[in-house]
Amino acid sequence: MTDIDPKSDIELHAVDEHVIVRVPLAGPVTGEWIRRYQRLARATGVPAQTQTHPDRAWIVVSVPADGNQREVAATMDAARALIAEADAGERAPAAAQAENIIRDWWARRRESAPHRPISRVAVVRTGIGAEKRWPLLGALGVAIAVPLLLPSRFSVGPSSSTRSSPRRAGAHSSSTTSTSASPTPPHSARPT
After folding, report:
1. Which of these CATH numbers, 3.30.1460, 1.20.120, 3.40.50, 3.30.1760, describes 3-115?
2. Full-model pTM
3. How far is it, in rounded angstroms, from Cα 145 to Cα 29?
4. Which residues, 6+ apart, have CB-to-CB distance to 100 below 8 Å?
5. In the chain, where are the structural domains located?
6. Crossing angle of helices 93-112 and 31-44, rounded to 10°
7. Are 52 and 29 in contact (CB under 8 A)?
């Protein structure tokens, strides 16, 4: 099984705005393994490739020089994870393809984990009174009982006695028109 060689040192080179990292590999590396690793790196968008010499092999990873710790570590972890995937390439092609899809899905979920949305289940469970039903039932019982226990002079809604009748409204308007029709006050006398 191929893996990084923890006993050897890595090599770092700054090129333009990137840092190139050469990580030595331990274990047997075949031409088929190299092709699988390079194909996986292209498919997943990991900026990694392989270099081989007769006695040693490396993975070469390019990371942005101005990248933060999380981005650089994620890129290096993804390059290392491709080693295991390239080793798993000897399995059935359908299973390997499904594994790659699942790993890609998991990598995307890990990146978006700090920004995960609240699920609908969490919103429903934290709604008003969703966890405590007894206080809601008690409040509903009080709301129903109070109008029934109040004396009849208290009204729940508008009643017909509080509305103005058309006859009263007409009487009121006629009195205002009769006062406004007389230009002179009633106590002053008019000459004839």
Report:
1. 3.30.1460
2. 0.47
3. 82
4. 40, 43, 44, 85
5. 3-115
6. 40
7. yes
For the chain, the residue count is: 192
Smallest CA-to-CA distance from 50 within 61, 64, 66, 65 is with: 61
Q: Are the C-beta atoms of 48 and 77 separated by less than 8 Å?
A: no
- Mind spelling out the 3-state secondary structure of the chain? CCEECCCCCCEEEEECCEEEEEEEEECCCCHHHHHHHHHHHHHHCCCEEEEEECCEEEEEEEEECCCCHHHHHHHHHHHHHHHHHHHHHHCCHHHHHHHHHHHHHHHHHHHHHHHCCCCHHHHHHCCCCCCCHHHHHHHHHHHHHHHHHCCCCCCCCCCCCCCCCHHHHHHHHHHHHHHHHCCCCCCCCCCC
- Across the chain, which has 192 residues, the per-10-residue mean pLDDT values are 83 90 86 88 91 88 89 90 80 70 84 60 51 76 85 68 50 46 53 54
